[in-house]
Write a structure and sequence with these properties.
The protein has 228 residues and is mostly helical. 61% of the residues lie in helices and 4% in strands. The protein contains ten helices and two strands. The chain has a two-stranded antiparallel ribbon with strand order 1-2.
């Protein structure tokens, strides 16, 4: 997250950072690809200084690896970061989902419901890209619907870096997909009926976190909201 500026005109640093972030998240700049600041400056139509500043910003987000006097490259997601990144997303968005779902406008509610269906379909794909492309708009919808500007800024600053860490080539074997799928189904139901509490529990379960409400004392077989 970067400090706000009073000058609303975009800086070359910001333009370069946003262009490069879009290319990294979109896959046109692939993990491990070397980044030459002079080549990038020529392509982006600016000097090397804003490009270097943009790369430093992206390194702070975890999208770029900087090794002085060695190389600058697009970061390579590590398998050991997959579960922690997923859990971090759950911690960040769980509470937001709980307070936002009951007050979603009809258009936003329908969009989230539809996008969750698309995400469920994409879980059957053999690579991470379709699922990542389908999940990110869901997170962004909740960011857009959050009415707390400080929370919104924190979520926007963290989202891309965490989602990027999920793009490990062996993602299919790194996560318990049947459990995640069940939790996403529960989340879709919660969105449909505007149940914020159920939505929070489903979000935590989908992100491999324990039930925030704790075990149900009336049920010995309670395994969280992810079992539907």
């Amino acid at each position: 997250m970067f400090p706000p500026r009073h000058d609303t005109r975009p800086l070359l640093r910001d333009i370069a950072r946003d262009r490069l972030r879009t290319e990294i998240m979109g896959g046109s700049l692939e993990p491990g690809e070397r980044l030459d600041d002079q080549e990038l400056a020529t392509r982006l139509g600016c000097s090397r200084t804003p490009v270097r500043e943009a790369l430093a910003d992206l390194a702070h987000l975890g999208l770029v690896e900087l090794r002085p006097n060695r190389y600058t490259r697009v970061a390579v997601p590590a398998q050991e970061d997959v579960v922690p990144a997923l859990q971090a997303l759950g911690l960040l968005f769980g509470g937001v989902v709980r307070i936002t779902v009951p007050r979603l406008g009809e258009r936003s509610r329908s969009a989230v419901f539809r996008r969750l269906g698309v995400l469920l379909d994409c879980l059957e794909a053999p690579s991470w890209q379709p699922a990542a492309d389908a999940a990110t708009p869901i997170y962004r919808t909740f960011i857009d619907e959050c009415r707390n500007p400080m929370v919104t800024a924190a979520l926007r600053g963290s989202l891309d870096g965490l989602v990027f860490r999920l793009r490990h080539r062996d993602l299919q074997s790194a996560l318990p997909w049947p459990d995640i799928r069940n939790s996403l189904i529960a989340l879709r139901v919660a969105v449909d009926v505007r149940d914020g509490r159920l939505a929070e529990r489903a979000t935590w379960s989908a992100h491999l976190l324990p039930d925030p409400a704790g075990p149900d004392p009336d049920r010995d077989d309670d395994a969280g909201c992810g079992r539907v």
